[in-house]
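Provenance

Sequences were taken from public entries as deposited. Structures were produced by running a predictor on each sequence independently, with no templates supplied. The record for Cytochrome c oxidase subunit 7A2-like, mitochondrial from Hirundo rustica rustica is shown for reference.
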Amino acid sequence: MYYKFSGFAQRLVGATAAAAYTPQGLKPLVSTEPPGPDLIFGTSKPVPGLPATDTYLSTNNVPDLQKVFQRSDGLPVHLKRGYPDRMLYRTTMALTIGGTFYCLIALYIASQPKTK
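Predicted structure for Cytochrome c oxidase subunit 7A2-like, mitochondrial:
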């Protein structure tokens, strides 16, 4: 016998094998509907309302970034892009050190007995 969790009764109830192996809220992996003529991702035809060229795509920046990150200038990879990277790094370090200091103070205050 198969069991499944009943959302109404909030307990296990008897069920068929198909119902027991399909949890509530999940659908079977195989689609039961046949593919229709209005496929979204099934064709390679361009959508009629969009322009022929993709204006939202820019040039490929990957080769330029590879040159920047592979340059042997002695800097760690997380500081290679200059001033913004330095500011992010310093802010992260300041927040980490400040948070550690705050936790130590909180532990010290919590360890002291309360006075009446």
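Strands lie at 2-6, 11-15.
The first helix runs from residue 17 to 20.
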